[in-house]
Amino acid sequence: MASPETPAGAVVTMDGARAAAGPGPQLVGVIGSPIAHSLSPLLHNAAFTALGFGATWHSQAFEVPRGQAAGALTAMRRAGLRGLSVTMPHKADVAALVDERTEVARRLGAVNCIVNREGVLLGTNTDGEGFLASLARGAAFSPAGKRCLVIGAGGAARAVVLALADAGADQVAVLNRTPERAATAAALAGSVGSLVPAEDGARLQAVRSADLVVNATPFGMAGALPEGTAPWLVAPDLLHAGQVAADLVYAPRPTPWLVEAAVAGAYPVDGLGMLVHQAAAQLVLWTGEDAPVEAMWQAAESIDPPKTPTGPTAP
C-alpha cells in the first residue's frame, strides 16, 4: 500500500494513519521524541517490499513527547497497530505499561519492541540480539569464552552486557564515569560481570586484556561533540591488533573512535549492524516471517547519514 501523504512538518497520529490506510492494511511504527530522523520505517518498509507485503503492511514514525507513552499505547490498541518499535525516551516507561514482558525486557527494565496480540501488548527488547548478530556478521565474532569490555552504562550498554553474558562470555567488564551505574549494568552479567575501577592502571589492563571493546556511549556521534574534542573513557589508541572494536553509534559512519581504533589495529564493527538486526528481529515478531536482512541492509546503506545526532539510544 502507498503510505498516506503527510504535509511537511505535520504530526502523524496513529488514529490518522489508520484513517488514511483504511481497515485492511497492517500498520506498525516507531515512537520516540525526536523521531523524524528514525530509520526504523525505512528498514521495515524495505523488508515489507522484499517480502511482497508492500501493499498490505506499512510502517511510519509517530512523535510521542516524553511522558506520553501511556497515551501512545492506548492509541496503538484503538488504531489496531500490529507492532511498535520504541526508542528514546520511552523504553523504561513502556516496560512498565505493557500487559506482558519477555524475560529479557523484565531483566533490562526496558522495551524497544511491542507486539499487539489482539489487544494484549507484549513488550520485548531486541537490542542485545541485534548487537550479537552485528558482531557475527561484521567480524565473525562469538562472545562465548571471550573477555569483553563495555564502555558506558546506559540503556544500550545494559542490553549489550546482558546479551554478552547470556551468549557465554567469560568476562563482561563495565567502565563508566559513574561507578554506581557501572555496577548496576555489570550486575546484569551475573558472576561474569565486573566493574572496572576508575584508576588509569585498572582501565588500561581492562582494555588491553579484552577480546572485544564496545563503545556504548554517545560520544562521537554526529553533532554531539564540539570540534576537536574527544572525551573518550577509553582512548581508541589503547586498542590493539587481535581485538574487535564495536561502536553502537552509527552516524557518522565510521565514527572517529572507530577510525582511530582501526588505525591501532583493532577490527572495527560500526553501529549500523545493530540497528539493522534489531529491526529485523522486530519484523519477525510482528509478521512471523523470516526477515529479509539483505534488503534491510541495502536500504540502510542507500541513504546519507542522518543529520540528527544518532546513537545507541536512538535507533
What report would you give on this structure?
The chain is built from 12 helices and 12 strands. It has 315 residues and is an alpha/beta fold. It has 2 domains: 112 residues, Leucine Dehydrogenase, chain A, domain 1 (Rossmann fold); 144 residues, Rossmann fold (3-Layer(aba) Sandwich), CATH 3.40.50.720. The strands form 2 sheets. The chain has a 6-stranded mixed beta sheet, sandwiched between helices. A 6-stranded parallel beta sheet has the order 9-8-7-10-11-12, sandwiched between helices. β7, α7 and β8 form a beta-alpha-beta unit. α6 crosses α7 and α11 crosses α12. The N terminus and C terminus are likely disordered.
Gist?
The chain is of the alpha/beta class. It has helices at 14-21, 40-51, 69-79, 91-97, 103-108, 127-139, 155-166, 179-187, 200-209, 256-263, 272-287, 293-301, and strands at 26-32, 57-63, 83-86, 100-101, 113-117, 120-124, 147-151, 171-175, 193-195, 212-215, 244-247, 267-269. The chain folds into two domains: 14-125, 3-Layer(aba) Sandwich (Rossmann fold); 128-271, NAD(P)-binding Rossmann-like Domain (Rossmann fold).
